[in-house]
Amino acid sequence: MDLLIVGSGFFGLTIAERAAAAGRHVTVIDRRHHIGGNAYSEDEPETGIEVHRYGAHLFHTSNPTVWEYVNRFTAFTSYVHRVYTNHAGVVYPLPINLGTINQFFTAAYSPDEARALIHEQAGEFDPKKATNLEERAIGLIGRPLYEAFIRDYTAKQWQTDPTELPAEVISRLPVRYTYDNRYFNDTWEGLPVDGYTAWLERMADHPRIDVKLNVDFFDETQPLHKAATVGQVPVVYTGPVDRYFDYAEGALSWRTLDFEEEVLHVGDFQGTSVMNYADAGIPYTRIHEFKHFHPERADRYPSDKTVIMREYSRFATRDDEPYYPVNTPEDRAGLLAYRELSKGEKDVYFGGRLGTYQYLDMHMAIGSALSMWNNHLA
Ligand code: FAD
Ligand code: UDP
């Protein structure tokens, strides 16, 4: 073995694929029973509808290197992601665009009129100087739209005071003064034609890649555990960085999600793939309806059944799957302390969403793995 990779998500598999292609022998361990990390999907058995096990995953990127790389393993459908939100029993398009604004204010504003209105309502904060999510959001869209579409959804999603959250969380959502309601701004987007798991398996399918599932790096009863490998072989670690150091600098805060899946005996439940619920009175943040991700599979999917998944968000305990780094000021201080500790670990490379405590989309995880391979490991 030339390299041990802890975690078979997109970060770990990209390193594994590159290393194997360069002639190295790689072992990938994962504590789960399947490869692919949070991007893993499987067909729901009663309906055959592909369900993203850890929440809906939409691939999008503007990075030509990443786009060329991922196309080696899968083709992509022409799916374009659009999200709607239910506020006070009325459905509006997201991200906030001219359609949302005109529907909300029951108006027919032109782009310039809408801009002038929002400018007037957003005056209390300058989004460029905003230091937290609330200031950035109000600075971008004004207080009325913030209170309708952002405040309570964000409270459900993060259970953290929006003045404590980093402004970047909301910068992911564009605001548009056109009727364009594409969720992402990227050059390329789509879903893997044969599903996520087929894509992930193709990345791992190489005679020099050995994947071992149900193996936990911290389980000292298995031979590839931390004390037995660090210092003996280069290690790429994509698990939670605080766990690696046994929480020596305190636990970083994460959010986890609970998913409530249901097969419904109706052909179409909500007419679209993702419906957000903006209001505090509804305990879940959104409902995914998976058949809408693949309209091209209409002849394969049942016309009288559908699979929906309600998503609930809460703070993660150490026993939960960590999904979203919360990134409060205390977390950022903790992360710096862990980065210092990491420098003392001989030949251990921390990567991926958990290993760097960063909100990385798939294309970012793949892009940073390609950089780590090219710049440090190759
Ligand atoms: P992960 O996929 O988390 O993989 C880490 C792996 O390490 C896991 O398989 C885990 O089991 C394993 N591991 C951890 N600890 C150990 C241990 N001690 N021993 C052995 N193995 C261990 N990205 C997008 O581009 N579009 C989206 O729409 C999107 N939606 C998302 C929705 C949700 C709910 C979440 C959580 C993420 C979403 N992402 C999305 C991000 C996407 O999941 C990540 O970018 C991608 O999975 C990153 O891969 P990774 O390898 O860094 O981490
Ligand atoms: N957000 C919101 N209302 C919405 C959708 C998003 O307030 O209807 C905020 C919320 O704080 C969320 C952030 O915007 O965490 C980013 O949203 P995105 O849909 O990108 O989050 P993800 O899909 O990663 O959960």
UniProtKB/TrEMBL annotation:
It is an enzyme of class 5 (isomerase). NCBIfam families: UDP-GALP_mutase (TIGR00031). Gene3D superfamilies: NAD(P)-binding Rossmann-like Domain. It comes from the Bacteria. This is UDP-galactopyranose mutase. Its EC number is 5.4.99.9. Belongs to the UDP-galactopyranose/dTDP-fucopyranose mutase family. The gene is glf. Its cofactor is FAD. Keywords: FAD, Flavoprotein, Isomerase. InterPro entries: UDP-GALP_mutase, UDP-GalPyranose_mutase_C. GO terms for molecular function: flavin adenine dinucleotide binding; UDP-galactopyranose mutase activity. Residues 148-359 form the UDP-galactopyranose mutase C-terminal domain. GO terms for cellular component: cytosol.
